[in-house]
Design brief:
The protein has one domain (56-259). The protein has helices spanning 16-21, 30-50, 57-74, 79-86, 90-118, 123-143, 161-164, 174-179, 189-201, 208-227, 233-262. The protein contains eleven helices and no strands. The radius of gyration is 20 Å and the shape is globular. The protein is mainly alpha-helical. Helix 5 (90-118) packs across helix 10 and helix 6 runs antiparallel to helix 9.
Length: 273
């Protein structure tokens, strides 16, 4: 999936952002958006960590073997080799542990706030895209619980870098252990959200260096999830799939809400195409 695959520019003649921005839309309220996001993420976390998406260890391991066999067939089973190249460099691994645990949330929240403040005409579509993408990922966790590489038996050769090397937190720490779902690996929300950041933010930057930094963020995320043994390459593919599906659903939903929101407020002598 490439930036061209999803219409992201307000100047593009067929951009859904342009179509929606030509209609009057109810004014965005920051406190209402905070409530929306907090409520959605609370429900998502509850279901992901304690509900139907929690899965079982035996089933998750079986699915992991399926993914490994599929990757070997495709010739992309290189996660363990990549980790081996860097595992001896502890400061380097520690940095990526921190990146894995913080950028996922910090960059996504920052992008959402930036859209709200600086590009409100794009905000509803991409907020909805993020919500649909996350909901579809939750469905994936429920239907296909997957044991990540870090939890596989030692014979597979992976190292749980957060446990062995450390970072700002650990999956085994009390608070994190209670709220995390170790088998929520397929699809990779790290990859889905990092891709979302690119498509949502790329039109905001005109400087070439800023656009390059934005575009490379998913590649950095991919390296982080692989070198820390939290995801397989196919998890990243799954993340791209749910992002694309989330965008399609969000575009239809945003058009529908725009139509409902503007109905009754149109001047009688003005026709809207």
């Amino acid at each position: 999936m490439t930036p061209e695959a999803l219409p992201t520019s307000p100047e593009h003649p067929t951009s859904p952002d342009l179509r929606s921005s030509t209609r009057p839309r109810a004014r965005l309220r920051w406190w209402r958006e905070v409530l929306y996001v907090a409520a959605f993420y609370s429900v998502y976390t509850l279901i992901r960590n304690h509900g139907v998406a929690s899965g079982s260890g035996a089933q998750a391991f079986e699915h992991a073997t399926q993914v490994i066999h599929a990757q070997r067939f495709l010739g992309i089973a290189h996660e363990q080799s990549i980790q081996d190249l860097f595992i001896g460099w502890k400061p380097f691994i520690s940095f990526w542990n921190v990146f894995y645990g913080t950028a996922h949330f910090a960059v996504t929240v920052g992008a959402l706030v930036y859209l709200f403040r600086r590009m409100p005409e794009r905000y509803p579509l991409w907020r909805n895209t993020l919500a649909f993408t996350t909901a579809l990922a939750l469905l994936g966790f429920a239907l296909y619980p997957l044991m990540p590489p870090r939890l596989l038996p030692e014979v597979y050769g992976f190292v749980d870098t957060l446990r062995v090397v450390g970072g700002l937190w650990s999956f085994e720490s009390g608070a994190v252990a209670k709220v995390s779902n170790p088998y929520a690996a397929m699809p990779s929300l790290h990859m889905a959200w990092s891709g979302w950041c690119v498509f949502a933010l790329l039109p905001a930057f005109s400087r070439p260096w800023a656009r390059r930094v934005t575009a490379v963020y998913p590649l950095l995320t991919l390296f982080a999830v692989v070198v820390t043994a939290n995801h397989y390459f196919l998890d990243a593919v799954g993340g791209a799939v749910v992002l694309a599906a989330g965008f399609v659903l969000a575009r239809s939903f945003t058009r529908w809400t725009d139509a409902r929101g503007t109905e009754g407020r149109r001047p009688r002598n003005v026709s809207v195409p």
